[in-house]
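Lab notebook, design round three. We kept the backbone fixed and only want residue identities now. Task for the bench partner: fill in a sequence for the structure below.
Input structure tokens:
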């Protein structure tokens, strides 16, 4: 490689810098999180022109992705997900501009694919032949698929009995080695982090800064799909807090490059039973208080000690945004409303953004004229058990037209 690399890693705490060839997840000096920084003067002057010639996808934005060898890219066609105008829900809530960015349309059914295409590609660049993660479901499904595409081994640790079947079967189908840990997600993450201290296993939880680089492309797509407008508010479900951190990074990069005027407010939504970040925002604390036993029907955000909490707090505070909590009842109701009124079927964790929107409109924290984007993070088929439990059972009648007419009131 000739000259300086186009990016470096920087610690968000002490500021120490690292080169892209180093296999790191946190700062070796202070232990804080790492972020990717690009050498902006070396970027092409007409990024919009370059991007406009490519299809909407994660790799449309490759100049702002930390990959040095394009021949190693591992892709399943991720990104390019729909930004859906939701007029019926907007009318219900008295809003003029409401959109849902549905990242459940990605190849394995969740936003995690955006991060995994970059993370697994980086694993290959670094010469790794084994990748690993702890997961509440979507991360394992996504990593297993991309590892299979790359031809490398995948190790997954999940909390025993706490992962929706629709996600677990994906990881198994793609050939991952799945281990159930008798504990919660935070226990599984602690163990997998220890496992990945050996250089033979590459960690791909959102602690990995390269994974968040793929996830920030949701912000780039929202900007391109709404162009020339930019949202006033972006509402995102928050679990391990990588996604809200990534989207804010994406919007701030666009702003620094002069490609948008004002970044949107970032609003994080957590379930009431798993809300350490929202609790910290509410009490104006600079550190979270982890939860030992987080609990919510929204399994994908059932996390008591989110590793990206510091980045998430920074995202909401820098953007003049805020956090809100929603109950399990509000989450299920939002899932039903989105499916019934807009034809979008999302998993409970994804519906948290709509549940939060309804609560914020009711408390007048969102104005009728605001341009709002709710991010939904996973497909409804990911968690089928909740439908069986919470929704009406199909009607049954004998095979007779008259009986069916009577039942249906026709």
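Proposed sequence:
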């Amino acid at each position: 490689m000739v000259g300086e690399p186009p990016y470096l890693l920087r610690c968000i705490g002490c500021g120490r810098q690292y080169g892209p060839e180093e296999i790191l997840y946190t700062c070796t000096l202070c232990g804080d999180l790492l972020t990717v920084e690009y050498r902006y003067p070396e970027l092409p002057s007409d990024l919009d022109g370059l991007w406009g010639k490519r299809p909407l996808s994660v790799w449309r934005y490759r100049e702002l992705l930390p990959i040095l060898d394009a021949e190693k890219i591992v892709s399943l066609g991720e990104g390019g997900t729909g930004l859906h105008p939701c007029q019926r829900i907007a009318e219900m809530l008295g809003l003029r501009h409401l959109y849902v960015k549905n990242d459940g349309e990605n190849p394995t059914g969740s936003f995690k694919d955006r991060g995994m295409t970059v993370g697994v590609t980086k694993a290959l660049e670094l010469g790794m032949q084994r990748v690993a993660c702890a997961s509440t479901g979507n991360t394992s499904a996504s990593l297993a698929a991309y590892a299979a595409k790359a031809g490398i081994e995948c190790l997954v640790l999940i909390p025993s009995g706490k992962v929706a079947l629709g996600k677990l079967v994906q990881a198994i189908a793609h050939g991952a080695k799945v281990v159930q840990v008798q504990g919660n997600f935070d226990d599984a993450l602690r163990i997998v982090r220890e496992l990945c201290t050996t250089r033979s296993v590459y960690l791909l939880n959102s602690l990995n800064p390269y994974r968040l680089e793929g996830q920030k492309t949701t912000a780039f797509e929202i900007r391109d799909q709404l162009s020339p407008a930019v949202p006033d508010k972006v509402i995102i479900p928050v679990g391990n807090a990588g996604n809200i951190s990534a989207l804010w990074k994406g919007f701030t990069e666009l702003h620094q490059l002069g490609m948008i005027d004002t970044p949107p407010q970032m609003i994080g939504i957590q379930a009431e039973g798993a809300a350490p970040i929202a609790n910290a925002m509410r009490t104006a604390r600079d550190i979270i208080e982890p939860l030992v036993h987080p609990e919510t029907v929204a399994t994908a955000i059932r996390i008591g000690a989110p590793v990206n909490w510091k980045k998430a707090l920074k995202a909401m505070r820098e953007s003049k945004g805020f956090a809100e909590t929603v109950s399990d009842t509000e989450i299920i109701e939002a899932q039903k409303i989105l499916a019934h009124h807009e034809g979008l079927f999302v998993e409970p964790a994804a519906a948290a953004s709509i549940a939060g929107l309804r609560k914020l409109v009711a408390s007048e924290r969102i104005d009728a004229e605001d341009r709002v984007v709710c991010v939904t993070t996973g497909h409804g088929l990911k968690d089928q058990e909740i439908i069986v439990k919470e929704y009406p059972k199909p009607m049954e009648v004998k095979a007779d037209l008259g009986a069916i007419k009577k039942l249906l009131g026709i």
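Keep this in mind before ordering anything: The radius of gyration is 21 Å.
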